[in-house]
Specification:
mainly alpha
């Protein structure tokens, strides 16, 4: 049942050229914009480029945002079109259905992360200590986090506009508080406490570990493990929001 759901969703996406472009092309284009923002900066010898720090973080944030949008809107269409309700009248288990959607979008997320990372390294010369493979791993986990949150939030939206409205509630606070703009230890105590439990914070911490260490560290694996646990927990929670009938 899980694999059948995965194949069905992938087949739908294969015929939706706009969604494929949004998933595979847009993050790379946004990363290109970030590169040219800092193209003319002047730095003393030996000082790392700003792009090497910001661009690395964008490799996680852009896929997270895009996959959240694509997943939440796609899942909402499944609900409002009646497709989801018809599927739930079959013997398929709700967890199989949700994890099937999650697996399908996760495959797309992996392709997205590979494309964006390739652009960052081979076109813009991203220069960090760690391995590109570890960067791809964190980017994929982060994109899958966007998938899981998109599946969960779609349950509480009636229209596509409402689905998009979850962006400033779920996505934007994580971007602001993850430590990208201001170091978390310099934040207001209340904001720091919130930041310390947000999923995107663990992603940024993991990427910072990769940026400054040639080999994978224990802290990197801890952060990655926490992110995977959050993804699984959100998917399970999303399965509990599935109803046999659409209100």
């Amino acid at each position: 049942m899980l694999l059948a759901t995965t194949r069905r969703v992938l087949d739908q996406l294969r015929h939706d050229h706009r969604s494929i472009a949004l998933i595979l092309v847009v993050p790379a284009l946004l990363l290109t914009a970030v590169y040219f923002l800092y193209e003319n900066e002047t730095l003393p010898p030996g000082v790392p480029r700003t792009f090497d720090r910001v661009g690395l973080m964008m490799l996680a944030i852009f896929p997270f945002v895009v996959m959240f949008l694509v997943t939440s809107i796609t899942m909402l269409r499944e609900r409002t079109s009646g497709t989801l309700e018809r599927l739930l009248t079959t013997p398929i288990h709700k967890a199989d259905l949700l994890f099937g959607y999650g697996l399908a979008f996760s495959i797309m997320a992996a392709l997205q992360s590979l494309v964006a990372t390739a652009v960052a390294y081979w076109i813009f010369g991203l220069d960090i200590q760690g391995s590109p493979g570890l960067v791809v791993m964190i980017a994929v986990i982060n994109a899958v986090l966007g998938v899981a949150l998109g599946l969960l939030c779609s349950a509480f939206a009636r229209t596509e506009f409402q689905a998009v409205q979850f962006m400033p509630v779920v996505v934007v606070p994580q971007i602001l508080l993850c430590g990208l703009f201001v170091a978390r230890e310099r934040m207001n105590e209340a904001l720091e406490a919130v930041s310390n439990v947000l999923p995107l914070t663990f992603s940024v911490d993991a990427l910072q570990e990769i940026a400054t260490n040639a080999e994978a560290t224990d802290q990197l694996w801890t952060d990655a493990g926490i992110m995977v646990a959050i993804v699984l927990a959100v998917l399970v929670l999303a399965s509990l929001t599935l109803r046999r009938r659409t209100a």
